[in-house]
Amino acid sequence: MKKKKIAPSLLAADFANMERDIKMVEEAGADLLHIDVMDGHFVPNFTIGIPMVKAIKKVSSIPCDVHVMIENPGRYVDAFVDAGADYLTVHAEVCPNLHRVIQQIKARGIKAGVALNPHTPLSAIEEVMQDLDLILIMSVNPGFGGQSFISNTLDKLQRLSKILKERNLEHIEVEVDGGVKYSNIKEIADAGADILVSGSGIFKAGHPAQMLQDMKNKLKK
Ligand code: DX5
Ligand code: ZN
User: Fold this and answer.
1) Which sign does the torsion angle of CA 35, 39, 40, 42 carry?
2) What DSSP element (H or E) covers 208?
3) Residues whose beta carbon lies within 6 Å of some atom of ligand 1
4) Residue 193 DSSP symbol
5) Closest C-alpha residue for ligand 1 atom 10
6) pLDDT in tens, 56-99
7) Which residue among the candidates 36, 39, 65, 133 is catalytic per the annotation?
8) What DSSP assignment string belongs to 167-189?
């Protein structure tokens, strides 16, 4: 069994105190830093861009998990790798040449991920799955933090786990993003998620560092 990882989503951190919040989650045992990039086209919001990924990388000591919710992500692969991405995840919905984009990411020697929106079937990645390091199952419609977890995701995760097992692809990490909090984290992990992204579930808690540790302990049970 793969180690379950927690990736705090910096979208919910205090942007005016980003370094402080990064150090806090690192000390509390975060495994990855989840960084959400948005373009105001694919999703109706803007967040972090390439210079901010670079700045985050400078002050972090754990891998940067960059989730790009942008159109034409292939155009920016080199820029994100140069900025310090350790994982780069693009959305299947905006990639007519998804295979090419995955190869572009892999050619730069970092981990390649593909994200699927809640309405996008697993079949969208059927022919490229074997090339991936990570599959990101969105459990909310992308664009905003603080939304509720879409319950059908649990069934989708179970179906994905079965496919990965049948195809001997269990080394691929499955990530879940959106509405993950203390109350549902274990159920989501048990359904097949290896990397649990949580933004408001951690940063909006009364004591974020303690919350992260509580989540980690809950995953161990
Ligand atoms: C949503 C982003 C998420 C977001 C999750 O589009 O991809 O990473 O930060 O936030 P929470 O955990 O608050 O749902
Ligand atoms: Zn995300």
Assistant:
1) negative
2) helix 208-220
3) 9, 11-12, 34, 36, 67, 140, 142-143, 145-147, 177-180, 197-201
4) -
5) 145
6) 999 999 999 999 999 999 999 999 999 999 999 999 999 999 99
7) 36
8) TT-TTSEEEEESS--TTTHHHHH
As a whole number of angstroms, the distance between CA 158 and CA 129 comes to: 16
Write out pLDDT tens, residues 203-219: 999 999 999 999 999 99
* pLDDT tens digits, one per residue of 126-164: 999 999 999 999 999 999 999 999 999 999 999 999 999
CA torsion angle 203 208 211 212 (round to 10): 80
What token pair was written down for 8?
A: 């705090």
Token pair 């990924």 is found at: 53
Are the C-beta atoms of residues 174 and 157 closer than 8 Å to each other?
A: yes
Give the neighbor-by-neighbor strand order of the sheet with 195-198. Answer: 5-8, 195-198, 173-177, 134-138, 111-116, 87-91, 64-69, 33-38
* pTM strictly above 0.90: yes
Count of alpha carbons within 13 angstroms of residue 42, beta-carbon side:
23
Q: Which ligand is nearest to the CA of 9?
A: 1
* DSSP class of 6: E
Phi, psi (deg, nearest 5) at residue 181: -145, 180
